[in-house]
Amino acid sequence: MKIALGQINPTVGALEANVDRMVLAAGEAVAAGARLVVFPELSITGYPPQDLVEKPSFARRTQEQLLRLARETAELPVAVVCGFIGTSSEPEGKLLTNSAAVIDKGQLLFRQDKMLLPTYDVFDEWRYFEPAEKQSVFDFEGRRIGLTICEDAWNDLQSGERLLYDRNPVEELVRDGAELLISINASPFEMDKRHARRELFCGIARRRGIPLVWVNQVGGNDQLVFDGSSFAADSQGSVVAAARSFEEDLVCIDLETVRGDRRESHTDEREAVYDALVLGTRDYIRKCGFRKVLVGLSGGLDSSLVAAIAMDAVGRENVTGIAMPGPYSSGHSLADARELAKGLGIRFEVLPITNAYEEMLRMLDPVFGDTPRDVTEENIQARLRGLALMSLSNKWGAIVLTTGNKSELAVGYCTLYGDMCGGLAVISDIPKTLAYRLTEFANRRHVNAIPANILLKPPSAELRPDQKDSDSLPPYEVLDPILKAYVEDFAGPAEIAVAQSLPEELVRDIIRKVDLNEYKRQQAAPGLKVTTKAFGIGRRFPIAQRYRE
Predict the structure, then answer these.
(1) Strand, coil or helix: what is 227?
(2) C-alpha span between 366 and 180 (Å, rounded)
(3) Does 177 have pLDDT greater than 70?
(4) Which of 67, 87, 57 is nearest to 23 (CA)?
(5) In a domain, 255, yes or no
């Protein structure tokens, strides 16, 4: 028997379109000789549906689409495993379940509800669903199969590792005679997770001595990017079938020969991060109904990287770069921005803000009185640029991509209603040091489209004469490890100072900046998550609070 791994890109809430996609993929599975095709967790609704689940019509229409999927595949010689929102049969508790269905010849053969409902990091399933009381195997084509939904299999860890739950669905299924494990998932991408994920599940197959099929969603849904990377492992824990990362794919495994299609991709983690950003940007733009993109081009590294990602995401014909030189912009910044746009082949426009800035000062100076010039006047420049970009966004129906990186967002080195204006913060989870590496990768992919000077010159906001980022911040090679330790690893200042051989006063100052700028981050555009802990989704801190490290 052949099993097809149907790695699809569903859109949250596009119930009919998601089922159409599965019907098409089921036909492709038949052409490949498969008897069973497996789709991801909540494949009918897309993941995560969040509070759409609380709309009574949403669950009802999801179940209607499950019946349509059964009807439209009834004549196909292939059974379908898919994820959907079910109704709980329990007399108490929540009304809905995160469920998987097995349908064949138009009939529902088997249903398994999810038992372990994660409520950490980006997940919040306990908010919506009633957990399953038990796991059961089902018989199909002479095999006893255990079907798990994402978290249900992630709790089958090696001896000595800390478990999150007191139930182990995988162990229960194996004890019940499962000869094959199928795991359907909506597992978001983050750096180095693809390798760790595969190690975990190959370890399960090896320890349990049975083959395993692992299918994941692909695509971007708001701040989350799903890499796909579906695979199958034999009973020794060796990968025998693999789908591509960051694109839809359908691969098969033959259970008789325990061999399958292998389409490995992205062995370089830097390439994987770059393509995760491309996919997340493309899907956010398209799933929100946009086609055109605007990027403010400063002639600096971050905006150059975002422009390259945007071009790869939606095509150069849909990207416009806007340079907005001000009173302190250097000549090379405009020249570098122009050269970048030419290298990428995108439209380029210049909107100087100096006259508008001087007019704003004339308007405000009578009220400012004799107070000295300070960051206020710097922010006026950034906000005029934000005004210009949002005006073009309104006029052209184009989405503005913000260009701030994680390092800047962490310490508040950004301007509300200025450079933070936009619909998507593409690199808000990319530390500055990683931005350099991604830009170098983009330059290799696009044959030096990004001018060398952009990579070499010191970073600067150019909001005052001879300004450099290093005037306000430590070097990014020092800053970024501090931020990772504090934001992603929850280390304290003394611990960080000792581990990184830094003055504790410096570390405490950085941490103070991180804590004080939560109010800015919660007003920022949504950003794409690629690290273990991104600002925004998965990191919930109060703004009005007095706790300090």
Answers:
(1) strand
(2) 77
(3) yes
(4) 67
(5) yes
Residue 130 sits in the same domain as residue 258: yes
Q: What's the CA gap between 123 and 371, in Å, rounded?
A: 49
**Cα 479 from Cα 73, distance rounded (Å):** 55
Biggest alpha carbon–alpha carbon distance for the chain:
87
Catalytic residues: 41, 114, 150
Asked if 272 contacts 247 with a C-beta cutoff of 8 angstroms, the reply is no
Task: Classify 278 as helix, strand or coil.
Answer: helix
Whole-model pTM? Answer: 0.94
H or E element that contains 13: none
DSSP states along 426-492 = TTTTS-HHHHHHHHHHHHHHTTS-S-HHHHHSPP---SSTT--GGGTS--HHHHHHHHIIIIIT---
* Adjacent-strand bridge partners of 107: 104
Specify whether the CB–CB gap between 446 and 305 falls below 8 A.
no
Do residues 181 and 252 share a domain? yes
Cα dihedral sign, 507-510-512-515 = negative
The predicted structure's pLDDT at residue 159: 60
CATH code of the domain containing 171: 3.60.110.10
Average pLDDT over residues 50-54: 95
> How many structural domains is the chain composed of?
2
User: Does residue 300 belong to any structural domain of this protein?
Assistant: yes
DSSP label of 73: T
